[in-house]
């Protein structure tokens, strides 16, 4: 007996239904494969952005550089930015005094060493020697700053360029999310249809339809990417495995601290009714 | 003075400028020393005179204190000028020696920075951090 869900299939030959079922499964598989690749791409993008904004120290390994040119560019720009930052920090720690402070101090030293002054205001010989020595050290320091004058500009440009690349990757990521949603929307009715066809075929003697592919692998990828799953998806993972295979990168939550109980009997007044057996 | 001018100052030029300033100061110091000596002599005489009178008259104690304060101040001024004279003589001898090109040891820090080393300020900062 054919139920109302299979009325349209009842008149068709088994081979035709089987062929429709096979083509539906093939389409589902194609969409699943496409979606899985998109999840991998999404995770890769996420890792590169994390690296670019200093949330992780090592960039992800990209096996097909020609496919992910913008990600390779972002990693290269971040490395260049880090190199310039290191140079700037080295210069700052080598010289220790900002350039404008050096100029001020040099002006003051030059004035005190050369401008006519009263005996009471004139620096002593020891102070003069110190100022003379400092004056030329500062001169060398300013020259060192000036030699690296382009460094700040380069650093600024590297930062801007990296931000632009990250923004572009973010934009791409949003487009990817839309494509993912579209893919899921396309896949859902096809799966439903495949299930319906399979249920029909199971009712025909001699037919042995292959099962509809599960989405467990995709769920694992989604979990790894930090996305949420619906109750049905969790149920599928429980039924077909995958939850226990999922590697959690986070540290395990510490065991809840045991509440310390006092060995002393509490003797404070309590709310509520007295128990019957305590009544004299 | 502009930064460019400061960067163009050479050790020779700075030594010459110091010597010039010191010579100007040295030429004014004998007159200053003479003035301070006279001032000190006058203060000493005043203090001495009032001191002798105050033994007989107790009302002069305020004046005695005032003169004594003045005398001490002039002694201090006189010593300052004498020290300045000594310092100037010493400084002139030193900088004249430097004028002949002996300032090398005074430019050790500058040379270290020029060769890519740390400034004395950075070294001091590092020592302070290490000590903590």
Number of domains of chain B: 2
**Overall pLDDT metric of chain B:** 88
Distance between the termini of chain B: 39 Å
Major pleated sheet of chain B: none
Radius of gyration of chain B: 25 Å
Residue share in helices of chain B? over 70%
What is the share of helical residues of chain A? Answer: 55-70%
Number of strands of chain A: 0
Topology as H/E string of chain B? HHHHH
Strand content of chain A: under 5%
| Shape annotation of chain B | elongated
Q: Largest contact between protein chains?
A: A-B, 34 and 43 residues
Structural class given helices, strands, pairing of chain A? mainly alpha
What is the structural class of chain B? Answer: mainly alpha
Number of domains of chain A: 2
Q: Give the oligomer, counting copies of the same chain as homo and different chains as hetero.
A: heterodimer
Write down the overall mean pLDDT of chain A: 83
Strand proportion of chain B, as a percent range, falls in under 5%
Gyration radius from CA atoms of chain A, angstroms: 36 Å
Helix and strand arrangement:
The complex is a heterodimer of chains A (280) and B (132).
Chain A: H1 7-10, H2 14-52, H3 69-95, H4 99-114, H5 125-147, H6 149-202, H7 216-224, H8 231-240
Chain B: H1 3-8, H2 11-54, H3 61-99, H4 108-114, H5 120-131
């Amino acid at each position: 007996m054919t139920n109302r869900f299979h009325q349209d299939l009842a008149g068709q030959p088994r081979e035709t239904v089987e062929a429709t079922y096979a083509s539906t499964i093939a389409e589902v598989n194609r969409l699943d494969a496409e979606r899985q690749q998109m999840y991998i791409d999404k995770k890769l993008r996420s890792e590169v952005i994390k690296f670019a904004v200093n949330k992780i120290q090592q960039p992800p390994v990209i096996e097909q550089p020609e496919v992910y040119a913008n990600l390779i560019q972002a990693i290269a720009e971040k490395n260049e930015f880090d190199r310039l930052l290191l140079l700037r920090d080295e210069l700052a720690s080598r010289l220790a005094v900002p350039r404008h402070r050096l100029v001020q101090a040099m002006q003051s030293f030059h004035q005190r060493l050369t401008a006519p002054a009263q005996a009471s205001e004139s620096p002593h010989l020891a102070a003069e020697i110190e100022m003379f020595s400092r004056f030329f050290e500062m001169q060398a320091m300013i020259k060192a700053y000036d030699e690296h004058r382009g460094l700040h500009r380069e650093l600024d440009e590297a930062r801007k360029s990296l931000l632009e690349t990250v923004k572009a990757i973010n934009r791409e990521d949003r487009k990817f999310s839309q494509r993912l949603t579209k893919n899921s929307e396309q896949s859902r009715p096809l799966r439903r249809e495949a299930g319906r066809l399979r249920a029909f075929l199971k009712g025909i003697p001699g037919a042995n339809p292959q099962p509809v592919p599960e989405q467990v692998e995709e769920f694992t990828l989604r979990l790894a990417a930090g996305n949420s799953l619906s109750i049905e998806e969790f149920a599928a993972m429980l039924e077909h495995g995958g939850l226990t295979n999922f590697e959690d990168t986070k540290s395990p939550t510490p065991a809840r601290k045991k509440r310390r109980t006092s060995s002393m009997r509490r003797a404070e007044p309590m709310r509520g009714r007295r128990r019957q057996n305590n009544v004299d | 003075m502009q930064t460019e001018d400061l960067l163009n100052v050479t050790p020779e030029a700075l030594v010459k400028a110091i010597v010039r300033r010191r010579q100007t100061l040295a030429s004014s110091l004998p007159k200053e020393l003479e003035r301070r000596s006279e001032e000190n002599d006058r203060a000493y005489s005043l203090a001495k005179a009032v001191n002798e009178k105050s033994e007989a008259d107790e009302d002069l104690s305020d004046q005695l204190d005032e003169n004594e304060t003045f005398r001490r101040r002039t002694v201090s001024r006189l010593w300052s000028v004498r020290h300045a004279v000594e310092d100037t003589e010493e400084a002139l001898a030193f900088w004249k020696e430097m004028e002949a090109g002996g300032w090398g040891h005074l430019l050790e820090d500058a040379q270290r920075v020029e060769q890519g080393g740390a400034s004395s300020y950075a070294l001091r900062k590092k020592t302070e951090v290490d000590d903590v």
